[in-house]
Amino acid sequence: MIYCIAAWKTKDKMFGVSSLSRAQRLALGMFILLLVDVIWVVSSELTQYLSSQKNMGRPYFSTYLQTTMFVLYLAGFLFWRSWWLQCRKKSMIEEKENEINSSIQTDKLLSDPIYVPIKVEEKQSGTESDDSSYIHAEEAALARMSYAAFVRAEEARLKAASKLTVKQVAKMAIIFCFVLFFANLSYQEACKSEEDFDHDSSADRVASSVGVVKVLSSTSGLFTLVLAAIFPSTSGDRLTLTKFVAVSVSIGGVTLVSLSDKIFEPKIHVGTLFWALSGALLYAIYLVLLRRRVDNEDKLNIPMFFGFVGLFTILFLWPGLLILHFAGAEKFEWPDPIQWLFLVANGIIGTVLSELLWLWGCFLTSSLAATLALSLTIPMTMVADILINNMKYNWMFYVGMAPIFLAFFAVSILSHYDSWDPVLLALKKLVQCVCRRRFSGLPRLRDLDREQTESLISINNRDMQDT
């Protein structure tokens, strides 16, 4: 316990948001997810340009390169000493002890020093110095704190005790690097499969193909809803009627927005269907299982986690490049300088930065809100086309855009109220109202019982008088 105050002053907490209230965390999480959508819109346009203009339609190579860029986060070991301290929890405890011991004299959170006797049940020796153990020293330091400082210290202690070490973070990264890699690969393979099926590389046809893929990818919200109910990380992950309606409304809105495109042709190739649904399922598995393993962002050093994801991608997934090359599925060619420039820029902005922010937004809101945020990129892309390219869409675009945003904000707000199910409550009210009106004309059972009782009493009184 003695090291807990120092935890407030370190950079172990994710950007210092642990002190925010639940409503503030929700607002910040929604803002981050919307920011990620803007980044993904820019990244999607750049990916489309690379695929159609620069002949970089190689999904595995692009995914491998972008995912390996996560290794840049491991530079944190060079700049932050706290990363090295995470190698062993004992080292973290010793460091925090030194910091708190140096701050006890000047920290205003501590009250004036007074003598507080410590009850010792058993003594190991006859001297007081031998009996003053490490735990007793902690209790003495905590006894001098004010109540508010003690509460914050206890919270910091619990979070510090549950923080994952470097070894634990690396073990998680080994598992999730495959899930995240193949989720991103599935999306790019779906886009390429649809383009190959169309046999047309024009920009309009590419946009139409991406629209089909995004409609199928929007089912990730449905997968997340089901998986979160099966593997809940918090009480707010339970399946409710309101969440199901919100996900259905979001999918319906995505379909309307995609149909508003005049060149949109909802022809689904088998390969496109497989890759798009696989990507949607893998994204849901990635978020739900990660949140079940780590229910709070303070437990996991997110940049370190992604750094190990990039490292293990480099170590384990490079043979896929050779296998696909010799199998003739994807020819390996070294990019030219211009292609390298676009690939690196797209990888740093569209993958390295956006994935970290997306996962952070997921912790601040919920896994379902994070997946529904993916669908917002579709209307955002079309809004950008309206503003930049002066494109026009029919009424279905505007009708479909509203439920997509409404579903996202509704699910985000529901994460603030764990047990609130407004749709179910409204349905119950409606049923009660209908039943009340339906049976309002019938006599109440209590009135019938009262009349029958009075009738029986009068009959009994008459019989007694006759006798």
Structural class: mainly alpha
Return the string of H and E elements.
HHHHHHHHHHHHHHHHHHHHHH
Number of strands: 0
**Percent range of helical residues:** over 70%
What is the first-to-last residue Cα distance? Answer: 88 Å
Q: How would a crystallographer describe the biggest sheet?
A: none
Subcellular location: Membrane
Membrane topology: Multi-pass membrane protein
Domain EamA: 273-412
Family: Belongs to the SLC35F solute transporter family.
Task: Provide a short characterization of the protein structure.
With 467 residues, the protein is mainly alpha-helical. 72% of the residues lie in helices and 0% in strands. The chain starts with a helix and ends with a helix.
Please name the defining characteristics of this protein.
467 residues, globular, membrane, 0% strand, 72% helix
